[in-house]
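User: two proteins, same treatment. go.

Assistant:
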Amino acid sequence: MLKARGLATPDERALYEYKLTEPEIAQLKSVLLACFKGSLPQTPRLVGAAFCLWTAYWFQREFEGGQWSWAEPLDAISAPNDPNSRALLVTEGMDFLRREIRKINGHREFLITLVIEGGFPSRLISSEGGWLTRYVEAVTLAAAHGDNSLSAVLDHAEHYQFIIPASFRAESFLHLAAELAHHVADLRRRLANNGISEGAVEWLDHEDPHWRDRLPVATDDGAARRLVEGLVRASPHRAVMPVSCRRILKRSGDRWSFAIRMDIEGRIDDEDLPGEVRARLQSVNRARILPAGMLERKGLPAIGVANRTESEDWRGWAVESLLRRGPVVVDEFPLEADARLVFSIGAGSGLEFVPTGGARVTSDVLVFKEETAANDDDLPASLLLVGTGSIKERDARLYVLVPSDADVSAQPGGEVGAITSFAERILLRIQGAASIKIDGDRYVVRAGADRSDFTVIEAIGHSPDWVGANYPVYLGCPGFLLHHGNIKRKGDKNSLRMRVAGRKEGWTPFDPKSLHFGVVEIAALDKEAILDRLMLVHLPNTARIRVSVLISTES
């Protein structure tokens, strides 16, 4: 096999890049059947390499869906199917082939490694073309718009897995989709850099006839070829990412200030809108998006145009920006202010809402990662808020803003260093893991993790415009969405806890019928550590403000 490709030894290429032929795969099977009639050698490097190639190409050519398991590829060659034998064969084989074994949460994943090394399963593309095409396209376009590192693309793959039928939602499949999207996003950027908007595939064929060979998919298969060419040609302006806001901590010299970054071009899910807003928009197909509240006072003009959009797996609004392509940053935007927008549907008629990530921040723990590289003084110019509670992040360093009296300690192997203090808070830099205790509540922040893992609680409900407070105010109990990583689901008694604010009593399972009126706390917990926490004002549905003017009778 190596000799046929002009190689004396493996050259670190992915296994799918060998493009094994039918006769070569048949020969692998024959050799392995003979090998597995006896016992394994003590260091089965060559047998292991053949085993890895066979298994990787079996998934590429034969897998049609269902459980991802060793059984079928190993049964076909009578290979031993116990954990020790599999670990030995893959370890020795991948070492010979000069390929790394993937790790997830610190554990070596032998099956996932070989599935990804084989590339996208051709039969799966043929049999599941509808949802699979939509899913991979969404991940690819998201990667093409922003960070295209493999870790970032995997985050996109996790975010869009709601498109995937439940039976296919496996770690292996997410990694496969991320690998393919990462490669195609690189191609799309190459096209954009050369000003190619029409005839993309034809241009690539002319400039780089072998571009398909480097993709993790067998493009000699008709369905796979159509999938890849469709991904290359897909419109870059299709709305795939949500209209959202991200909080930023910016530095200018020794001064730090908060800002907000708005991604306007994108989509708004119906389920992310308050019920009364969603109901009043039922008969509306097009609306302008205008700023409200603090955004309006900052002088922002009309922000975008929203068009009602429905598809097989999604209902909501596709928003086109009226400002400019790319994010819009609003400086000096306080944490305690909501980023409010308005659906403008007629003269004097508007429906306010807060986009994802736009709600005021009420947590005591704010976790940031570097958005810009550190300067000569080893401090970045801007930090991006990534969590408001316990969190794991891949970044080697994280930054945490906590009250000045918080008890922060490094866990074994971790480091905590103070950077600056402002607004009765202290900004810390964390490497490794740290424990944070505030008024009896505990948080754990871990930098340098194998994968990102965080939880964010989002409240969606009727927020009246006739009352202001330090915390969000809702008439009636709002609904809660729990964003775990990039997966979104409704919060309930199993995932949320509640208590009256200020009392520091024990947490009780969330129950909308028994939620106290007044200032309350809602939290997601894990092993006594707080993953995220919201403070809000809960008022009765019928609450109204009555103003009485007292007139003095004294002369």
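Protein 2:
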Amino acid sequence: MNAGEARTEGRPRARVLLLILLLEVVFQAWIADSEIRRNVYLICYALMLPTVLLLVAGPVLKAVLRLRGGELLFAYAVLTISLPVAGFGAVRFLVPGMGYVPHAVEADAGLARFLPAWSGWPVLHDALPIRLLYRSGAPDWSAWRPPIFFWSAYLGLLAAAWMGIGWLVRRAWIEEERLAFPVARIALEWTSASEPAWRRPGFAIGAAIPLVLQSLLAVREWFPIVPAFELKAWNARELLFPNPPWSAIPDIPVGFYPMAIGLAYFMPGPVAFSCCFFWVAIRLAHVGGFALGLGQASGGEAARFPYVPEQGAGAWIAMALLTLWALRRRGAERTPTERRVDRSVAIATVLALVSASGLQAGCGVPWGIALATVAVAAAYMITAARVRAESGAIWTFSPLGWTPGRVALECFRFGAPSAGTVGGVALFDLVHVDVRGQSLPYLLEGFRLGRDAPFRARDLVGWSAAFGAIGLALAWWFQIDATHAVGAAGAAANPYGLTKVRVAWQSALAAGRTDRPDAAGIGAAVLGMVVTALLQWGRARWIAFPFHPVGYVLGLTLTTNAFFVPILIALVVRSVVLRYGGADLHRRSVPFFVGLVLGDIVVQTVWALIGRAADAPVYPFLS
């Protein structure tokens, strides 16, 4: 180990911390401007555009700032952990949700039942600040202070819990199970001290493909005469299967996202195969249900068959429980000091989750439902981190519709829930409706980077917490300002944030419409738990067992649904490479696929900057 690496294993140098601080400010401002005003998404991918830009600029930054050893990767890791709080399932949904009921009650009279409870919640209350939020105008910061403080406390408690969970599972996932961590692998390949990917044959070709194809699409957005090949997914179901019973298949997205193909190449074979298998199996279930008189055409409860979101909820909870159960075997391998530290971390994690539940209870949510909501949210986060660690999960979606709040309402209530309970659950589901704004997957990828970089895990945790707090404050500032500039409900605003606010409320309302739990949905969730457990048992019992539970877990979400074709392409190519070229050809092919990933992200970043400079709309590369 050279001197630079030795110093990196000490405390981070001031120049590295100043670089992180500067980029935190710049990136948070950029995120708010792009995602709210310009419909350009920067941080919804597993690899975020701003932090990839830092990676790509790394060789220059290392020379100019004289960075040592793993300092660039340390800065990258801290920023990937601190930036998501600005995204989906955090500030990005909280801001447009802070006046939703009074704003939307004119269009939806059913929301009027929540107005009496609204005055007791940590939201905007007065008519003027609410009108300014949705129709544009200068923000009333005095009205915003109470919601900002409350929700910052809630997000902070969750972040503390995620750090505790990440600390507890990191050694098992990284050192013992040696999970693939495809997202971290991209960063390690790019920054390799011995042979970085950008210097190896194949990288330039891989990067050139998205550079050319995506740029043609961006230019065609401005000049329609320019020919271009569409890479975004389109629904081929009507073309392939226009008639029953095959028309019961909900959709067949066909897309060729370069980044998705590149990341999927680093998926372990069983995971990629299982993603494809269960994608097909779920669609065949729709066809079989139609033949039996079930599915969307049947109406009533049968229209929900095969209960994909409900199965997904059970599968995600089961995956988390199996992950925690596996940790019980680690006791004998730890030193007494490590046991004491882990015990303290576990206690602190539980206290953070209970405290988060207490904030919900303080808003009128019954303690049982509050505890259940936070427990399910924690289970979803553990599973999100697990599937990211095993598959890369280009997008990481939790079960659609069956949010933690809805699961808690369905399973832990007695009789019809009150308006205050349903509304309180909907309000907190602004955070839990999406997992992409939470830090746990990025934290574990940071721990994986730290194994090779090297930097200390405790430095990563400490500085990520510090810059996470700074990033949270900046996210509130920039996003409230950007939202007020265009109006959350204005024509110039990106509608996605307000759309997800509606989803959170609709999910809670769906669970609160009757005085009885959703027996069919709960049954489907139990089925999802059983299938996940059986798949895990099969993998533990038989070495050649072909199915992986991560494939089933992802197959029940939008992740595999959107990226089935890229995963299939990567699986076929990887199988051919290993079959006919062996491990040597596979190693030599890696730079090409790193180029596909980074080239795609960089070209999207460049066009986002061009659009910002020209103040012009940019081709939506994602959707």
